[in-house]
Amino acid sequence: MHIVRFAIILYNCIVNKTRHWFSHDLSGKDCNKYIHWTMFKFNFPDPYENKDENAVKHLNVEDVDSSDREIEWFTAHEMFPLQVHIEENIRFHMFTCGKYEIKHMPFQEGIKQLSNISEKEEISEAEILHSDLLPAKYEGGLKVWECTRDLADYLLQNNIYFSGMKVLDLGCGVGLLGILAMYLKAESVHFQDYNSSVISAVTMPNVLKNKSKLEQDGILQTNRFFAGDWKSFVDLVKGESSAKENNYDIILTSETIYNPANQSKLLRVFKECLKPGGVIYLAAKTHYFGVGGGTRQFENMLAEDDIFHSQVCWKCSEGVQREILKINFHQRTTD
C-alpha cells in the first residue's frame, strides 16, 4: 500500500511539473512564463484513469529502450511537396520568436490533418496507446517539445548567423527550427523526421505556409524533405555526393538524445553530414529519467569518440533541467 501511495504522489509531482504540451500561442519574451512542458509518457499509473484491466497501458520504459532486441526501422527516403493538401477546417497557430511569427499546425489540428495521409497507422497506434513514443513506429513528431523553444530563443538572442547557409533541421517534427532558419535567410533548409506521415501532414504544410510569406517579401530558398531512420538517411544523402563541401553549415536538433540506443546513428549523421567548420546546436534535457539519455551522457559519448568538441552554451536549471550544446569538429593542429 505504501508503494502504491508513493507511486501516486510521484506521478502527480511529475505530471504537474512536466506533462502539458504547447496548446496555445507562445511568446519568446520569457521562456519560463510561456512554456508548458511536454514529457515522455512512461508506465506511470494515473490514479484518475479508468481502472479497467483491459484498458491499454501507457508506453513503458522497456518499450523505449530497444537496445536488446531487433527492431526494423523505416528506410529513409526523400519526399516531395507536389500535392500537399490542407483540410479547409485546419487552424494554424502562431509560434512567436522575437519579431518572427511562424505559422504552424498545433497538435490537435495535426491529428485532423492526418485523415488525408495513408501512412498514418503508426501514429494512430500511438494515439490509441496515449503514447508520445513508439520505438521504430512513432517518435513524437507531432508535438512541439520544450527544448525547441529553448533553441529558437537562443538562436535569436545570440544573433546566430544563417544568411546564405545550408541548414538541416534534424528530427524536425513540425519544422519550427528549420522555418526559423528560413526567416533568418538561410539559403537552403532541409527537414528530416522519422515519420513520413508527420512530414506529409504537418511539416510540409507548415513550411509552405511560411514560404509563401517569405516569397512575397522577396526571399527565395530551396527546401528538401526526408523521412526515415538516421542510418539510412546518411546513406541516402551521401549517395548523392561524398564531397564535404556539399554538407550542411548548420545542423539544428532538439530532443533527439533521449534514447542512448539511437545515439550512434545520430553521431554518424553529425560526422558524415556536417561541413568542416560547421556547427551543430543540440537542445535537450540534462537527463531523461527512466531512459538513460541526456546531455551529460551524450557529451561523454562525444569525448570518447574524440571527433567533436562540445560546450554547454545555454542552460536552464529551473524545473526540468535543460541545456543547449554547441558542437564542432575538433581543430587538429599539426607539428
Q: What's the gyration radius in Å?
A: 20 Å
Instruction: Label the structural class.
Output: alpha/beta
Spatial sequence of strands, sheet with the most strands:
1-6-5-4-7-8-10-9
Q: What's the shape? A: globular
Major sheet description: 8 strands, mixed
Number of helices: 11
Mean pLDDT: 79
- Number of DSSP-assigned strands: 10
Helix content: 25-40%
Order of helices and strands: HHHEEEHHHEHEHEHEHEHEE
Strand content is: 15-25%
Task: Flag low-confidence runs.
Answer: 4-63
| N-to-C CA distance | 67 Å
For the structure shown, list the relevant keywords:
two-stranded antiparallel sheet; single chain; 20% strand; 335 residues; alpha/beta; eight-stranded mixed β-sheet; 10 strands; 11 helices
